[in-house]
Design brief:
about 160 residues, alpha/beta, Rossmann fold, 5-stranded parallel beta sheet, globular
């Protein structure tokens, strides 16, 4: 059951996140009121993404958690204003996976969080492995088809070297 830990003040952003998670999915939002509660959640549950408000929770306050859980994508979700450029640069240098603007991205917040989650990353890795396997099997099939063609049409076959 995939989970998103949400460290956001107020209910509006959390509610927007809950409402826009994919319908019929098993995604859950775990509300955290403080960094220590988020730390407890990260150590006791499998968390696929952390959504936080950098306007209320300074990046320095959660830096230790971010370094302890580098595989978990951290997503900033706050009512950013035009004068928050320095904060957005700090998010970029802290390798925040995604920045969502509260009041603008609310309608697609859940979908974007799912797309940037650790679960999506794992699915992508599985797909690449499957695609690689399929590519290898396609190459083998092409080679077998070529051999069959050589056997049925020996005159058209490329000369084989005898060693």
């Amino acid at each position: 059951m995939p989970a998103v830990a949400a460290l956001m003040p107020g209910a509006e952003a959390s509610l927007a996140l809950r409402r826009t998670l994919p319908a019929g999915s098993s995604w859950t939002v775990i509300g955290c009121r403080s960094a220590p509660q988020l730390a407890t959640t990260l150590t006791t549950r499998l968390v696929d993404a952390v959504v936080f408000a950098p306007t209320r929770t300074p990046l320095a306050e959660i830096a230790l958690l971010r370094s302890a859980f580098p595989q978990v994508p951290w997503i900033a979700f706050a009512p950013f204003r035009p004068d928050d450029g320095a904060l957005l640069l700090a998010c970029q240098s802290s390798e925040v996976a995604l920045v969502l603007v509260d009041g603008v991205d609310n309608a697609v917040a859940g979908d974007l969080v799912v797309r940037h989650s650790a679960a999506a990353h794992r699915r992508g890795a599985e797909w690449r492995c499957d695609a690689g396997t399929r590519c290898a099997s396609d190459a083998i099939n092409a080679r077998l088809q070529s051999r069959r063609h050589e056997q049925t049409h020996p005159a058209l076959a490329a000369p084989h070297r005898s060693e």
